[in-house]
Amino acid sequence: MRQDGEQLPQWYRTAAAASWRFLVIVAAATVLVYALVHLRVVVLPIILALLISTLLLPVVRFLKARGAPDALAAAAALVGAFLLLIAIGTAIAPSIGDQFTELRPRAEDGLRQATDYLADPPFNLSEREIRDTVDEGIARLRENSGPLARGLSSGAVVLGEVLTGLIVTVLLTFFFLKDGPRMWGWTLSFTGRRSREHANELGTRVYAALAGYVRGIALVGLVDAILIGLALLIIGVPLVVPIMVITFFAAFVPLIGAFLAGLVAVLIALVSGGLLDAALVLGAIIIVQQVEGHLLYPILMGRTVHLHPAVIVIALAAGGILGGIVGVFLAVPLAGVVSVVLDYVKDEPPPESPVVDEPEPQPA
């Protein structure tokens, strides 16, 4: 007599077996994500330290090649980066401090002025409905940003997490730069002999991809900020320095960041110089974006991390839901890591980038 399961068609049994395995994988991934979110005070500094180490590693290698001890080279790179940030902040802080207070009201005025153009021919949209929608959106932004700002300024728990995270990040960055190869070799010692070679190759590829992405995107953001800043100076748009700062950091949020930074620049130009200046700024931004997409990315990013725009949008949405602003910043590099792992499984060639140095040999 045949069992009940044997009476079912093969495709049904296959689908059922695949379904419960998929559900187990989803459940495990969900538990892992929630655990990482709850342990963000530990997990986030590790991720940030890895990303920062990719920027400082060339300096450490330069100092080591000239006879500096490991600890001295790592400490010098960290102190040098800290002093550089202080110097840049001291140079631009006086102008940014006053101009950033004007940035939001001017952008809001530009948004309202844009609604006036939409209400006139040839658009002939309802001015009252547009204004009500814009005012409602601005009010919601203010409501959402107010509690966040108050929480960050008055929340002792949040302040403690931030300070703890900064200290842990600095210490981990120092140890990654000083003892990175030895730490990686110790990690590989927990893998079996057969899987050690694969783990070493995969880890090297992931770190190379992260290094290429972080360095490349930082250079892309710097060039974008300089080019757009020059265009704004030539056109005569105010608040150039804050817009350049926003443009630089917006580069770390692909697609969405460039759109928002460009929108702010166009709205400021609309308020300060009218429709002609706004059109000129929009044209300059489009040209810069074309230069970025066809010249800067191929040169600086190489074959490091290439993700489809749909994947980037999904990663940004998931990162924003799970981790807020921090999740948005980390979404694309983490998605790039997943892409590198999948490429390794498919026997694709390793990531390459002109800004990535040859990795140091890792101990087996």
TrEMBL record:
Keywords: Cell membrane, Membrane, Transmembrane, Transmembrane helix, Transport. The chain crosses the membrane at residues 20-37, 43-60, 72-96, 156-177, 225-253, 259-288, 309-342. This is Putative PurR-regulated permease PerM. It is a multi-pass membrane protein. It holds the Pfam family AI-2E_transport. Belongs to the autoinducer-2 exporter (AI-2E) (TC 2.A.86) family. It is found in: Cell membrane. One of its GO terms (biological process) is transmembrane transport. Its main location: membrane. GO terms for cellular component: plasma membrane.
